[in-house]
Amino acid sequence: ILAKFMDMLNTMDYNKALDLYSEDAVHVSSESTIQGKGNICHFYALLMLNYLNDGVYRITSQTKNGETRHFTWTCDSPRGHVNDGSDTIGIKDGKIAYHYTHYTISQ
Predict the structure, then answer these.
(1) Which of left, alpha, beta for 54 (phi over 0: left; psi -120 to 50: alpha)?
(2) pLDDT (tens digit, 9 = 90+) per residue, 24-79?
(3) CA–CA gap between residue 49 and residue 25 (Å, rounded)
(4) What confidence tens digit (pLDDT) does each residue in 44-55 have?
(5) Residues near 60 by Cβ (< 8 Å), separated by ≥ 6?
(6) Start-to-end C-alpha separation, the chain
(7) Are 90 and 96 in contact (CB under 8 A)?
(8) Is the whole-model pTM more than 0.90?
(9) How far apart are CA 48 and CA 11, in angstroms?
(10) Closest CA to 2 of 54, 56, 50, 73
(11) Which residues make beta-bridge pairs with 21?
């Protein structure tokens, strides 16, 4: 699922989020908590189009514990950079059920 998630980010195809997340998935960041894959898709659209457009996302580490995945990541974009991405996702029935993310965008 991480490969599909990174593909979504690197191709800037935020509609792929609809295939990755369960219907009532929860996405938590330091700024907000949103629920439902439609709202999550909108979150990625804003992120990709307004803050990290044309970004190159890379996983820098990953661990797997049952249905939980933790990974760190970076992104280099013309509008900003992320060097401290840290996410945890929970998977249920092959879909992301919850996703906690933390990152800082710098210029």
Answers:
(1) left
(2) 999 999 889 999 999 999 999 999 999 999 999 999 999 999 999 999 999 999 99
(3) 22
(4) 999 999 999 999
(5) 71, 72, 73, 74
(6) 29
(7) yes
(8) yes
(9) 10
(10) 73
(11) 96
